[in-house]
């Protein structure tokens, strides 16, 4: 297993989650360091979304521990996650198409020039100024910050959603399928943005089905198979075939020792039939 | 001055009147019609009726026209707010009648002074809105059903309040003045000039703030078209109304509601959140906005504005009777909001739609009255105009989608 030099900012230790008869996650371990991009891959139903929802506070784990910046933390809801500095960009982006870019970036946290209860007046000038600054720092190129989000391309919308997630002192950002349904140029735009988040020292956790994208931006790849962690691969030392084999569970057909030797990074936690 | 490199695809508006018209042409070709169809429609209607009867554009008839639309238009302001959320309020007509009835009975039968009776009428609207809004937010019953039930129930309550004779005649000066009092000519001019000055002053201040902050600031020339339209519209309206009896108090109230709610929607957090809930309620909820709080407030505002409209209508009629707020009041108010360009799907529109739409509906009705057409014809033509307006919206939405701006 390859560890980055940095201490992990976010760690999941032995996280399990059961929904009725379905064991969604069993003893999942993963960690993300500051300035690192971790890819979270796995087939449909492998538990990727459950992991994201546990980190962002939508689900509570049944057992296991989440550590943030070395301290154990309890994340009881999305506000707890946000307060820690964990932001999530879901696949549906949650943008208001009818509002302009500035309004979307500040939705729910508007800058105010005159506090007056229900008639609190917005400070559009300061919001627009900071919005331009945030987008420039992330090198997000959009025609204007004052056009409705509906007029933007898919990549630009994704970029706005990411910018909104990270502009409030985030330390870890979770991206759920950020390049799904994007064209080539727009995918490029989003991948560049992910690298810029990394440069700025954020820990980035990317869920993706697209291995080409994952291999391009991630430092390490964590594979889930039927709710278990089957391994963490360093992109420099791993081949795409190894990762595909881990995703599809193909290596379980082989001798476990062989697989471990092949991948050089597989944790021996995966025993088929090992009910927890 | 610009702090960001301009994207070549950026839609830059050129300064001056020429830029105004270039921008207009681009928006029309891409289906971003805004208020253009309704303004063109209004002009066409005016030309047709003026040709058919040359009294139509007389100062006296235009004054009558604005008096006729003040009540419906005020109700339509509330309808616009509800439509912005993507909801509907079918009870506004009956609520306007109920609140007027409460005011009339308290004033005439119980002897309350006019201002107090008016306040009680408006508060009745607030109460009705709170009940309907809570029902929608608590029990998740669609607003269509809640307010349809309200339409029936408030009608019954109004008949109960009016009691035996079913008609209450109003004589209290405070109440009757609302729709029957006109400003003296000098006061009308003063109000018009103050409006123009406030508009220009606001433009200048926001321009200076943006420049001080180093944000991209359009030159004065870029506002040329807009400024010309506002100044001509305001001062022209004052001149026409002064040529007859002066600016009616009711019209001042109606326009006041529009200006106030336009400012609230554009400048305040409440307005921003209203648009957000109408655009994407789930996104608003995740951003920490109290979606139910916004919904409840908007239903209260809609009913309160309906109450104000009902009171204006009662003042004009000098009475509240069994048909107050019934008939086509509701349909005209909703038609006005929609004809004015408010989207039925939420998140798009402006309270100025209430003025433009009410003018269209009012002009058609007034013009056909001048021509002494049967009400059968009036209903059919009004229906046709409503359908046309919604069709223009639907077709222009296709244009926006084609231009990637849906």
Protein architecture, described:
The complex is a heterodimer of chains A (276) and B (406). Chain A contains 9 helices and 12 strands. Chain A has helices spanning 48-55, 78-84, 101-105, 124-137, 154-166, 184-199, 211-217, 240-248, 256-263; strands spanning 8-19, 22-33, 37-42, 63-68, 71-73, 86-89, 112-114, 121-122, 172-176, 203-207, 220-225, 228-234. Chain A starts with 7 loop residues before the first strand and ends in a 13-residue tail after the last helix. In chain A, helix 5 (154-166) packs parallel to helix 6 (184-199). Helices cover 73% and strands 1% of the residues of chain B. Chain B has a two-stranded antiparallel ribbon. In chain B, helix 4 packs across helix 13, helix 14 crosses helix 15 (352-370) and helix 14 (329-339) runs parallel beside helix 16. The model of chain B is unreliable at 1-12 (pLDDT under 50). Chain A binds chain B through residues 78-79, 92-99, 103, 107-110, 112, 118-122, 125-126, 128-129, 132, 135-136, 141-144, 147-148, 150-151, 153, and chain B through 3-4, 7, 9-11, 209-210, 213-215, 264, 267-270, 272, 275-276, 278-280, 282-284, 286-289, 297, 347-348, 404-406.
Features of the shown structure:
heterodimer, A: 276 residues, alpha/beta, six-stranded mixed sheet, four-stranded antiparallel sheet, 12 strands, disordered C terminus, B: 406 residues, mainly alpha, ABC transporter involved in vitamin B12 uptake, BtuC, 16 helices
